[in-house]
Amino acid sequence: MNNEFTAIYFMWKREIIRFIRSKSRVIGSLGMPFFFLAIVGSGLGGALNLPGVEGGYMDFVAPGIIAMVILFGSIFSGVIVIMDRQFGFLKETMIAPVKRTSIVIGKALGGGTTAVIQGIIMLLIAMLLGVQINFANIILALIFMFVVSVSFVSLGIAIASTMEDIHGFQLVVNFIIMPIFFLSGAIFPLDTAPDVIRYLSYVDPLTYVVDVLRYLLIGYSAIPLETSIAVVLVFLAATTSVAVYLFNRIES
Amino acid sequence: MNAIETKGLVKKFGVLKAVDDVSLEIKEGEIFGLLGPNGAGKTTFISMLVTLKKPTSGKASVNDFDIVKNSDDVRKSIGIVFQDPSVDDELTAYENLELHAAMYGIPADERRKRIEKVIEMVELKERLNDAVKTFSGGMRRRLEIARGLLHNPKILFLDEPTLGLDPQTRKHIWEYIREMKGKHNVTIVLTTHYMDEADLLCDRIAIIDHGKIIAMDTGEALKDTLGGDIISIETDCSEKLGKLVKKLKWVKDAKRHNGKIALRVEKGERKIPELMNIAKESEIKVKSVSLHRPTLDDVFLHYTGRTIREEEASAKDRMRLRVNARRRTR
Fold first, then answer.
1. Angle ∠(B266,B271,B277) on CA atoms, nearest 5
2. Residue A90: closest CA among chain B residues belongs to which residue?
3. Suppose A115 and one of A73, A84, B192, B197 were both cysteines; which one would form an S-S bond, judging by CB atoms 3.0 to 4.6 Å apart?
4. CA dist., res. A202 & res. A190, Å (int)
5. Contact yes or no for B29/B185 (Cβ under 8 A)
6. What is the β-pairing status of strands B229-235 and B260-265?
7. Which helix (H) or strand (E) holds B207?
8. Are B285 and B273 spatial neighbours (Cβ–Cβ below 8 Å)?
9. How far does CA A33 lie from the centroid of its chain?
10. What pLDDT tens digit does each residue of chain B (330 aa) get?
């Protein structure tokens, strides 16, 4: 058992080392959200008046953009499974005398950690741009971000476990994260959205993520907190189970 | 004692039998070679022994552990160097080795000592903290050998250990392999399609073709079964000459392949003039003649009617066809 924990720790550490060594990836992944927040956020801020939101559009959209960074950063880190297969490292982990479940958990925690780091950087950028953050809940917010990240990394690992090439993975992931992001109410309030959009948003896990982040960071919420937390935890359980199941099925 | 025993091991991929009823015993402390052309089933056979693939039927034990029921015990007691690289390029050599040591249950306080020991053996000590992506192909292979030895395995599996390496690095790797056997009493199982490698390095050799073992013995014994000399003769009409020489009493065996005829004879140097006369009388033009002691390639030719080199070329053709077919369907 002890050995399994060691394996999880070293798989986690490997993700962290790889993340630190690829600075271009970090900067690249933060580029789009930054411009989104800086340009769209401030551009629309002057034109929009959101009822119930104190700080204006910029404050409203900042938690949504942080959720976006976490979503993109974590789900794409599932690509490591395909890269390991292509560059052969997967075999080394497959024949190690540890459970494959430990390998998946290590990768998910590692990818989750790196996504949270990107989320924190985005949070700091938001503050520099003048967004008012509620610091009382910052620790809770970070823990929540980590749980969400691990869920989406698991989703990425699950998808990557069924695919052989990186381009296919990127296409599939792009295909699913766009609706996840735009339907989540990250960039507009859902209560004034058309019914179709609103109903669709209820089946989007990111809707609940954005709502909790908004509650914790700027004190605005549209969904009962218990509901959101429950949905996020169910989502975490589901994605990790599927990731473990599909990763275990990989044939060398 | 036997390090490895297999009984009727079979692996099917659909209808294709990649490994077909292989039974063998490998003794502790020996260097055992699996020699055969690409696609003969060597890698699949090894994959089953190292618990990467499950056999379709049959049994095998490695270090007395069943490969299906006790796969974790098998894994802890063996080291593997794959045909394709399997190190993480982004990590340093040290980080790769440390990760391996941790996963194989080596206690934290022992890891550095062990890593230093194996890295010295493969002469990569000064590169220990460099990222693997800066390594050459030969250095990577050496690093993988070091990693395979890190957890003191009783058996080391090497799948085509010198494939694609320059002659100097090949010799180096042969030295490590001998050293492992000599100093550390590690049993070595290696696959290769290089005849010289099998011949020079291995205590015993199994020749494998289409998933079956067609001959198994020491290199010398395999060559001795053929006996005498091999005359290889290239002409413009090998069919006609083939028929003629088969009538000769002193020709033990004649195999036609690729426009050449390989004759098994005693005292070959005295038979060449006779052959030249026969050719001249039948107005066959001789392009080249060579005389040599039987090699493992001749042994392969004897059992299969093909040489490994020819098989090699056609395997490449098949691969090319497959790749082209895949491209077309895209």
1. 155
2. B86
3. A73
4. 10
5. yes
6. antiparallel
7. strand B204-209
8. no
9. 13
10. 799 999 999 999 988 899 999 999 999 999 999 998 888 899 999 999 999 999 999 999 999 999 999 988 999 999 999 988 899 999 999 999 999 999 999 999 999 999 999 999 888 999 999 999 999 988 999 999 999 999 999 999 999 988 888 888 888 889 888 988 888 889 999 999 888 889 999 999 999 999 999 999 998 898 888 878 889 899 888 888 888 888 888 888 888 887 888 888 888 888 888 888 888 888 888 888 989 888 888 888 888 877 776 666 666 556 555 555 554 444
* B151 in contact with A, Cβ within 8 Å: no
Handedness of CA A15, A21, A27, A32 (dihedral sign): negative
Round to whole Å and give the CA distance between B223 and B226: 6
- The C-alpha of B280 sits at a distance from chain A's nearest C-alpha, in angstroms, of 58
The burial of A90, by beta-carbon neighbours within 10 Å (0-12 exposed, 13-18 middle, 19 or more buried), is given as buried
Residue B91 at interface with chain A, using a CB cutoff of 8 Å: yes
Distance from CA of A74 to the nearest CA of B (A): 19
Rounded to whole angstroms, how far apart are CA atoms B234 and B241?
A: 10
Which tokens sit at B294? 């039987």
Cα B75 to Cα B50: distance, rounded to the nearest angstrom: 7
pTM of the model: 0.84
Please list every residue in chain B whose beta carbon sits closer than 8 Å to the beta carbon of residue A7: 102-103
ipTM score over 0.95, yes or no:
no
Q: At CA B185, angle to CA B184 and CA B191, rounded to 5?
A: 105
- Residues of B within 8 A of A14 (CB-CB) are 88, 91, 95, 99
Q: Where are the domains of chain A?
A: 2-248
Smallest Cβ–Cβ distance between B87 and the set A10, A17, A89 belongs to A89
Q: Does B200 touch chain A (CB under 8 A)?
A: no
Please indicate if any CB of chain A lies within 8 Å of the CB of B141: no
Contact between chains at B103 and A252 (C-beta distance less than 8 A): no
Q: A95: which 2 tokens?
A: 């024949």
Q: Say which of A13, A84, A96 has its CB closest to residue B75.
A: A96
Å between A56 CA and nearest CA of chain B = 44
Partner-chain contact A18 B91, CB within 8 Å = yes
Q: Cα separation of A140 and A223, whole Å?
A: 18
Angle between the N-to-C axes of helices A166-182 and A205-218, in degrees from 0 to 180, rounded to the nearest 10: 60
The widest CA-to-CA distance across chain B, in whole angstroms, is 80
Closest residue in chain A to residue B84, using alpha carbons only: A88
User: Which token pair is A235?
Assistant: 């989502």
Contacts with A89 from chain B: Cβ below 8 Å = 86-88
Cβ-Cβ contacts under 8 Å for A245 (sequence gap 6 or more) = A158
- Which of B97, B103, B134 to probe by mutation at the A interface, max A CB count within 10 Å? B103
Q: Which of A18, A22, A89 sits opposite B86 (nearest CB)?
A: A89
Pull the structure tokens for residue A148. Answer: 């969400």
Rounded Cα–Cα distance for residues A170 and A155 (Å) = 13
